[in-house]
Specification:
Layout: E1 7-12, E2 15-20, H1 23-27, H2 38-50, H3 58-65, E3 84-87, H4 88-107, E4 121-124, H5 139-142, H6 147-153
Length: about 160
């Protein structure tokens, strides 16, 4: 089984997109996709998109496509998120860890730009921003280093 066999083309407002059509699994008689919960369909699409025969094998895809409410033994799902959202509570330590790893690589003569997450990461800072100075022309120069400074110095997408 190859994931390329499940690509479908969809045109939306004149723009052509390629999608991995999980309904083709049912059309080919492989699994009854229409009976599955939506959350399982999301996992199937993810596995079909990442199906490579090594990390995601046909067996992995079939285990989920032929989903049961109960299994005799636990099964592993090699899920690969397309994006990670991190709140400030977990995201700030991750940014600090990335900064430390980049510093260590630089100190060893390596390229710190190679230290990056494998998938895009969005850091949500919703309540941890502290404003010490405001409403004055010199407020920006008086402020202390903050989480926003770390994000500026160490963006996650570089």
């Amino acid at each position: 089984m190859r994931n390329a066999d499940f690509i479908n083309h969809v045109n939306v407002q004149g723009i052509e997109y390629q999608i991995f059509d999980i309904n083709r699994l049912e059309e080919k008689g492989i699994a009854k996709i229409s009976r599955l919960p939506f959350s399982i369909k999301i996992l199937i699409e993810n596995l079909l998109r990442k199906l490579d025969g090594r990390i995601v094998r046909e067996e992995d895809l079939l285990n989920i496509a032929k989903w049961k409410k109960r299994y005799d033994a636990p099964i592993e799902i090699p899920y690969h998120p397309a994006r990670v959202l991190m709140q400030d509570f977990t995201g700030v330590p991750a940014v600090v860890d990335l900064a430390a790893m980049r510093d260590a690589v630089r100190d060893l003569g390596g390229d710190p730009g190679k230290i990056n997450p494998l998938v895009p990461v969005d850091l949500i800072v919703d309540h941890s921003v502290q404003v010490d100075y405001f409403g004055a022309s010199d407020a920006l120069t008086k402020r202390k280093p903050s989480v926003l400074s770390l994000i500026t110095m160490f963006p996650l997408d570089k």
